[in-house]
Amino acid sequence: MAVRVRVQNFQSIKDAEILIDGLAVVTGPNNSGKTSLMRAIRGLFTNAPAGPLVRRGEAFLSVELEFDDGTTILWEKGWERPGQKGAAVNRYTVNGVMIQGVGRGVPSEVEMLGVWSIEAGSDKIWPQVAQQFDGTLFLINRPGSVVAEALSDVERVGRLTSALKLSEKDKRTAESDLKVRREDVKTLTQEVGFFDGLDHVDEQVEAVDLTAQGAMNSARHLDEISDLCRRHSESLATLQSLQGFDPHIPSPEQIQEARDLAGRLEEVLSLQERLDKGSESVAELQLFKPVVLDIQGILLAQEVLRTYREFCTRLKDARGLAQKYSVVHLPNLPDKERVQKLARAVAMVSDLRVQWEGATTAVDELRVHGEATLNESKAAAEEVLLLLGDRGICPVCEAVHVPGSHS
């Protein structure tokens, strides 16, 4: 697999780039940067300390590897300003994703590439990047026991190592996620604290709803009451206009007598008509002296009687209206501004109730997610124990493994 290497500000190297595709031989005079190039590649996979590695006068170093399958790794380490000043810089960028604050170790995304040392006896061997001044290829100058230990059960060690790397990655991911979820639970718990004292908010909302509904009903009836007040004022004005007339209402006997008089008057008019006709006949005969009745007076009396009846009817209606509205009392309606405040309070309490229910649901979901994450971490640890089996020596902590007691 071909890989492009670029090194910047690493010891004596200002900026250098090479392509390694198969066997690559780096030559040059002493102090030309050959060893620095090897150290830079090894430093990327070990996260070496930056103190003796950063080029003098520079702030931080950078080493970038780009593989032919598209995988890219950028390692930057040092400080923000030259002379080891400012905040420390210790970050990896894997396939465009920046990883900061990685500590002293190497991120799991870099370890998954499989470039690391192998413990064989008391030696630490790098299969991919040889030690400086080794002078030999991998394992050629090692004792037979070391070669046998390094190559024995390579497949199982590879699976175990891969499992350990994946387990460690899952553990780090779970711990990171758990940390974030705990912060979320803490934040949401503080937010839920804002809703303390709202246990009986439903009853208060219902009471406020009833009060607001009553106020709204009163507001709807306000127009009706205003109309009644207007009609009451008109009735009083009508009654005032009738004060010039006799307020005495005739009795039923008097009304009946007036009706009889009207009937008789009609008879008189009919007789008057007949008299007129008779007078015409008498005038023709001129034998008798005609008796002339005051017809205008009769007609005037009829008009006065009709007007009297009309005013009596209006007076009766006016008195009935006055008596009907005499018991009407204007209610003490709530202030319009108070009604608006009650409406806003109802809306605010309803909104707070919705937020409280949402926050409670979120807290429950985070608690369930946190428990599931812990269970997955425990399951991963148990799988690691199963993979160790009867290996004897743990390749991670170098402790003697006794089945059932390794932790």
CATH topology of the domain at 1-116: Rossmann fold
**Mean pLDDT across all amino acids:** 77
Please state the structural category: alpha+beta
Form type: rod-shaped
Distance between the termini: 38 Å
* Range of strand content: 5-15%
Please tell me the CATH architecture of the domain at 1-116 by its name: 3-Layer(aba) Sandwich
Overview of this structure, please?
- With 407 residues, this protein is an alpha+beta fold.
- α4 packs antiparallel against α8 (336-388), α5 (201-241) runs antiparallel to α8 and α6 packs antiparallel against α7.
- Strands 2-1-3-4-5-6 form a six-stranded antiparallel beta sheet, covered by helices on one side. A two-stranded antiparallel sheet has the order 7-8.
- It has a domain at 1-116: Rossmann fold.
- The relative contact order is 0.08.
- Helices cover 55% and strands 13% of the residues.
